[in-house]
Each structure stands twice: as C-alpha cells, then as structure tokens.
Design a protein that fits this description.
The complex is a heterodimer of chains A (135) and B (58). Chain A is mainly beta. Chain A has one domain (11-32, 48-133): Elongation Factor Tu (Ef-tu), domain 3. Chain A is built from one helix and eleven strands; from the N terminus they run E-E-E-E-E-E-H-E-E-E-E-E. In chain A, the strands form two sheets. In chain A, strands 1, 2, 3, 6, 7, 8, 9, 10 and 11 form a nine-stranded antiparallel beta sheet that branches. Chain A has a two-stranded antiparallel sheet with strand order 4-5. Chain B has 58 residues and is α+β, with helices and mostly antiparallel strands. Chain B has a domain at 3-36. Chain B is 10% helix and 14% strand. Chain B contains one helix and three strands; from the N terminus they run E-E-H-E. Chain B is elongated and about 60 Å long. Chain B starts with a strand and ends in a 22-residue tail after the last strand. Classes of the chains: A mainly beta (135), B alpha+beta (58).
Chain lengths: 135, 58
C-alpha cells in the first residue's frame, strides 16, 4: 500500500537550520516545464522536459525568540538558500529521501497574527536545483 | 574564514561549521546561529636564545 502518513517526525531545514519543531506543514512541488516535441509522422503528442520550476511552501509558527523562526528567515528574504524536507529523522535512504532544493529563492516573508492565536509565517521558496538525497 | 556553531538548531554548539554550497552565511551570522572563529594574532613566545659557554678554555 503506497501511503505515507506524516505524524510528527518530518525534518525541515532552512539554510541548514533545523526548524522542524516550529513547522506545521510543507508543500513540495517538483515541476518541470513541459516542452512539446511532436513532429510530423507522430500520431500522438510527445513532450520533453524543460527547465525545472520547483517550489516549497513551509508553514511555521512565528517565534521571535533567539535562533527561532524569525531569526532564521528575516535575513533570507530576497536571497537564495537551501531547503531540505525529509519524511523522518532517520538517515537519508530510498525510503527516507532528503528532498533538497539548492539555491531556492525567498521573495516574501508574510507574518499572520490574530487575537488569541499563535502567529504564523508561511513562506514559499521558488526555483533552485532539486535533488533527492537517498544515501 | 572559519565559523563555530552557536545554536543547537545547526549542530553541536562549539563545533566548527563548514557551510555547504548555497548556504547563506550572512543570514546565519545575523541570526546568531554561528560566530566567526577567533584567530589568535599573537605569536608563541620563542625560547630565549642562550649561548652555550664553553666550560673551560684549554
């Protein structure tokens, strides 16, 4: 049965900083441009891979304490860095791949606050080189 | 430039930190996750030169 249940042990690192205990959600999009390669004589459309166009959206609690979420992200806005998302804390393997985005760009740092609720920061990193570390 | 880990979120505090490609060092420094390793600028004291005196001239 091909199912992964994410309960409490995924690992999220941003700029090499482990922010797993502040993270509540991660959306990883691994995309490549789809370039048409159909030519005369083909009976069906064909495509080839173009440029990678990946993104990672991470949901954090907005902790302003020392070496927490804010301290990690505040200086990354408008720059590129590395982001890794891994299913569990175990070593990298084929069943626990470290989804790594190298040189991914953070364009915005939106902070959401409301009365009586914990503040949150949802950030989206765009672009960069995607690799799956499995060893 | 050498760096020392200053936050458990990055590794063991006090261990040297070698950034991988793509890591934003300025952001780590600004956030207090690493510090620059202090390099000693003082030279070690050299032992005093002592001329060996010949015990006796014949």
């Amino acid at each position: 049965m091909a199912t992964s249940t994410y309960l409490s042990s995924p690992v999220v690192t941003v700029n090499a900083v482990d922010l797993s205990d502040q993270c509540t959600g991660a959306t990883v999009n691994i995309n490549y441009d789809q370039l048409e390669a159909t030519a005369f004589g083909d009976s069906s459309r064909k495509y080839v891979s173009g440029l990678g166009s990946h993104s990672v959206t991470l949901d954090f609690y907005a902790s302003f304490a020392a070496t927490e979420t804010w301290a990690t992200l505040k200086s990354l806005v408008g720059t590129s860095t590395n982001v890794i998302v891994k299913p569990t804390t175990g070593a990298d393997s084929a069943t626990n791949p470290g989804l790594t985005f190298t040189g991914t760009f953070l364009a915005a740092l939106p902070i959401v606050t409301s009365l009586g609720a914990l503040g949150t920061i949802s950030v989206t990193f765009n672009g960069g080189v995607y690799t799956s570390d499995e060893s | 430039m050498n760096f020392i880990i200053a936050s458990e979120r990055l590794g063991n505090i006090g261990d040297p930190y070698t950034p991988k490609d793509g890591i934003n060092i300025d952001a780590l420094l600004a956030g207090g996750f690493i510090v620059r390793a202090q390099v000693s600028t003082t030279e070690e004291e050299k032992p005093a030169k002592t001329k060996s005196k010949k015990a006796s001239k014949e």
